[in-house]
């Protein structure tokens, strides 16, 4: 074998022999976050409460323009997820409320616990997969796909989701286009919308 082959074999073994050295790494969000997440909180100071998230308790009032209330349990608010490659969110919908088209860095699995929603995603071939879900139904949205949920029932609706990353991010397409620092004229050009429509969107979000 030449040197390169030895190097390749070495790298392979180094990867395969990667052992799990610690039981958990409850994140310390006061430390800088790297690609693998936060540094660990001192294990001697970790208690049961670090592994319990209470932020999903109670009623969530949907009072934004979309008629939703999204409660994220990502590793920055629930640091027990740090390093485990999982996270959660609770989605509450007013009657007619929506989670507009958005994506994450990860896949997502949703379970509907109240009401009835249409959930769906659109793949890179522009094929839409969507269905009306009833309580107890589970739907999966593959990694990075654009997806959405619409409350089509006569009552408020609630769903819980889990994502296979501790910090999966939530990028809402309308927010990215009309709430961030993208100038209105560029938003207009890249969406082919009229100036009137772009200004209507910006007014809706209070950014004009
Ligand atoms: C979500 O619900 C909580 C609890 O009712 C409320 O404090 C919060 O303002 C709501 N957020 C949105 C965006 O509707
Ligand atoms: C891609 O989309 C086209 C047009 O809708 C459809 O005919 C085709 O079957 C799709 N291909 C795949 C692999 O889904």
TrEMBL record:
Any single Pfam family the record assigns to this protein: Cupin_1
Coarse class of the protein's main subcellular location: secreted
UniProt xrefs under Gene3D superfamilies: Jelly Rolls
InterPro entries: Cupin_1 (IPR006045), Germin (IPR001929), RmlC-like_jellyroll (IPR014710), RmlC_Cupin_sf (IPR011051)
Signal peptide (residue range): 1-19
Domain Cupin type-1: 54-199
Keywords of this entry: Apoplast, Disulfide bond, Manganese, Metal-binding, Secreted, Signal
Gene Ontology CC: apoplast
A GO MF label: manganese ion binding
Entry's localization field: Secreted, Extracellular space, Apoplast
Disulphide bond pairs: 25-40
SMART domains documented for this protein: Cupin_1 (SM00835)
Domain of life the protein comes from: Eukaryota
Binding annotation for Mn(2+): 102, 104, 108, 147
PANTHER family the record matches: GERMIN-LIKE PROTEIN SUBFAMILY 3 MEMBER 3 (PTHR31238)
Name this polypeptide is given: Germin-like protein
Organism expressing this protein natively: Chenopodium quinoa
């Amino acid at each position: 074998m030449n040197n390169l082959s030895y190097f390749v074999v070495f790298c392979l073994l180094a990867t395969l022999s990667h052992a799990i050295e610690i039981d958990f790494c409850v994140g310390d969000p006061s430390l800088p976050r790297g690609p693998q997440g936060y540094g660990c909180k001192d294990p001697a100071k970790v208690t049961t409460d670090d592994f319990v998230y209470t932020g999903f308790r109670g009623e969530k009032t949907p009072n934004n323009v979309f008629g939703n209330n999204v409660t994220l349990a990502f590793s920055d608010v629930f640091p027990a997820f740090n390093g485990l490659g999982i996270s959660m969110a609770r989605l509450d919908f007013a009657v007619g409320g929506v989670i507009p088209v958005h994506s994450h860095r990860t896949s997502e699995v949703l379970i509907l616990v109240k009401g009835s929603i249409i959930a769906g995603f659109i793949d890179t071939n522009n094929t839409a997969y969507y269905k009306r879900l009833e309580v107890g139904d589970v739907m999966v949205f593959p990694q990075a796909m654009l997806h959405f949920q619409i409350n089509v029932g006569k009552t408020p609706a609630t769903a819980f989701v889990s994502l296979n990353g501790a910090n999966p991010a939530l990028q809402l397409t309308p927010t990215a286009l009309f709430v961030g620092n993208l100038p209105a004229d560029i938003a207009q050009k890249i969406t082919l919308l009229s100036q009137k429509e772009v200004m209507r969107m910006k007014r809706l979000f209070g950014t004009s």
